[in-house]
Amino acid sequence: MAKKAQTVFVCSECGYESPKWIGQCICGAWNSFSEERISDTSASGAMAAKNRGRKTAKPASIKNITSSEEERLDTGIGELNRVLGGGIVKGSLTLISGEPGIGKSTIILQTAAAIANKYGKVLYVSGEESQEQIRIRADRIGGLAEDLFVLSEMEVEAIVDTIAQEEPVFFIIDSIQTLYSNQLTSAAGSVSQVRACTAEIMRIAKEKNIPAFIVAHVTKSGELAGPKIVEHLVDTVLNFVGERNHGFRILRSFKNRFGNTSEIGAFEMSQEGLKEINDLSSSLLEESSQGEGGAVTTAVYEGSRPLLLEVQALVVNSGLGFSRRSSIGIDQGRLNMIIAVLEKKTGLNLMSSDVYVNVAGGIKPEGTGIDLAAAIAIYSAAAGKPVRCKETLIVGELGLTGELRGVPQPERVAGEAVRMGFKRIILPMKNKQKWTSKEEIEVLGAANIMEAVKIALQD
Fold this sequence. Notes:
Elements: E1 5-11, E2 17-18, E3 33-39, H1 44-51, E4 72-73, H2 78-84, E5 88-89, E6 93-98, H3 104-119, E7 122-126, H4 131-141, E8 148-152, H5 156-166, E9 170-174, H6 191-208, E10 212-216, H7 229-233, E11 236-242, E12 248-256, E13 264-270, E14 273-276, H8 280-285, E15 295-302, E16 305-317, E17 325-328, H9 332-346, E18 353-359, H10 371-383, E19 392-394, E20 397-398, E21 404-405, H11 410-419, E22 424-428, H12 429-433, E23 442-446, H13 449-456
Parallel strand pairs: 6-10, 6-11, 7-8, 7-9, 9-10, 17-18, 19-22, 22-23
Antiparallel strand pairs: 1-2, 1-3, 4-5, 11-12, 12-13, 13-14, 15-16, 16-18, 20-21
Helix pairs in contact: 5-6, 9-10, 10-13
């Protein structure tokens, strides 16, 4: 007897199902519904069958629940361990995303080989490549291991059965958008398929206490493809970013139930695969333009380590009748605010000028600690005045009234600056008043943007 199918409309943002199409979802998203056909066996009938005979779970007092440090697997890659919080937690589900060709498959294959060599059987499931293609890539990056097994399969039920039979210590799904469930009639990659397949993978990972990596695609805007509910299901969400025509790659954690969500890992893409960059500040400043107009060195605190980087600005007369503002690495709205404060508080006229700001190295730092450096870089480029001392580090948040707000961990930033050969650091006055570091570096404080400009730039 043929399976009956029903039509539902599924929101791509939250996964909400509606029997009819509606313009706005309950999550607030507009025009986010797509039509899906779901068989009856996967709906309430199947759920009711599972519920029959199930034992009722009993709650337990939190004081009676034993707690211990979660057991982790060493990935064999120090930067990946850092981002994950010390390694892969058993039974955890990690989602890794990134643009095509950025290195997702490379890093997970290197991780799979390292874990297979150290702990035992690892299962690599690919719905995009054949076993021969994976072997060719493994030969190139040195990812061969006796206990690394490869499976080319797209049906999630078959994958789950294989995992249950083989019982690997770690498994990888590449990628979740290629999988499909035979209980659903919709195409692979649809909202309902991605959600159902992720739920099945999570179930087997939790039941067997096996850690898993899931690879996901991203949209043209750089956001994770598929329903947002997938991000809520998994334990960790990692994002791989970088320019494909450059070797520099950054792995950032956006969600981590077992570690810091601000950590980043640095890699360099080579013919032999991804190589770790342990001294990230040196790599970002090795082609520094210190001493030139429009170039300012600043620092941000990423996770557990300070990171030095360079902010560059270019100010030119607009030839189009209207001025342009463009930024790479800094939020566009933040850049507009910085320019407005500069014009209001320093008298700098940028109405007829194009302003371009770039954070060298392709880094997109979080937080507002580079506001002051961006403002000084723009003023320096417009006035043609370089920073007075090229071994100067500038850190601070800029307020709408022109005041400078304090930044976290200034002493640790100063320690990194001294290691990199810097002699001066310009900070908000609030940070200088609480200064406790004994590092051999000149500390200069500024209360507002005008004071910072006078201290930083040559006469």
